[in-house]
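Design job #97: recover the sequence.
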């Protein structure tokens, strides 16, 4: 049987090490063929090292406490090597998914234009993360 080789999408889940982060990681690992990694955000330097060592296609930010998604976007927007990244932000306390894939460069800094999705099922999250991989 002929099998086509497709590059697996690399997804890095960034959070605070919560049960929410772990559940999202399990969902993605069980329901997709993504290469899923987890990163506990402690500070900007550590975050950048993790991303540089194992560059993902998608950064999935799990907002469940004091983690500030705007800070993650600011870090991503200030590094040219991250221009290709899709950033998806999900929240523990509501079903809104923010997808940041369109960007523009102004004065040497990237600015993202988010698309907001109201998730009704887990498939809404999976489709948001798959978006870049499928070329949508």
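Job complete. Output follows.
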């Amino acid at each position: 049987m002929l099998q086509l080789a497709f590059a697996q999408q690399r997804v890095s889940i960034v959070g605070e090490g919560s049960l929410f982060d772990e559940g999202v990681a399990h969902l993605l690992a069980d329901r997709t063929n993504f290469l899923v990694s987890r990163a506990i955000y402690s500070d900007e330097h550590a975050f950048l090292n993790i991303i540089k060592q194992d560059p993902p296609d998608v950064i999935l930010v799990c907002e469940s406490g004091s983690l500030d998604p705007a800070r993650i976007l600011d870090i991503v927007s200030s590094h040219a090597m991250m221009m290709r990244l899709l950033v998806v932000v999900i929240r523990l306390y509501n079903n809104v998914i923010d997808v940041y894939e369109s960007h523009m460069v102004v004065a040497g800094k990237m600015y993202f234009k988010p698309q907001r999705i109201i998730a009704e099922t887990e498939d809404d999250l999976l489709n948001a993360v798959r978006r870049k991989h499928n070329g949508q």
